[in-house]
Predict the 3D structure of the following.
Amino acid sequence: MTTSEPARSYPGRRAPGAETLAELDEALIDCRACPRLVEWREETARTKRRAYADWDYWGRPVPGFGPPDASVAIVGLAPAAHGGNRTGRMFTGDRAGDFLYSALYDLGLANRRAATHRGDGLELRGVRITSPVHCAPPAN
Ligand code: SF4
């Protein structure tokens, strides 16, 4: 069965049927339920910050990061416009992430300090990072 475009745009309707966190994340990244946030995240991805002009911004909802069976949750507010909204991973590519992942590394909960982009090899142990708002909000 093919999921219709309206259903893909409003994953809250699909969420109750998700059987795994990966399925939920897969639905999440298509979400367009909040017009104001969708416009902002995509506008930011188009205009970019000069320092990241050569980046292809993520510009979509940013899913949680870390193992699904984690016993500890770290809950942020929302992705940063030029951090998670650029890299597609929570707290990745911004100064808050530099601090957070360095601390997690010191505690033995991350395998490296640096979080620069998805695919950088960063892995978390027993911790999952998420946020109640998955899109970068206007005016932070
Ligand atoms: S903030 Fe949440 S509900 Fe709103 S568009 Fe982004 S993912 Fe969807």
Summary: The chain is about 30% helix and 5% strand. Residues 34-130 form a domain with the Uracil-DNA Glycosylase, subunit E fold (CATH 3.40.470.10). The chain has a mean pLDDT of 93.
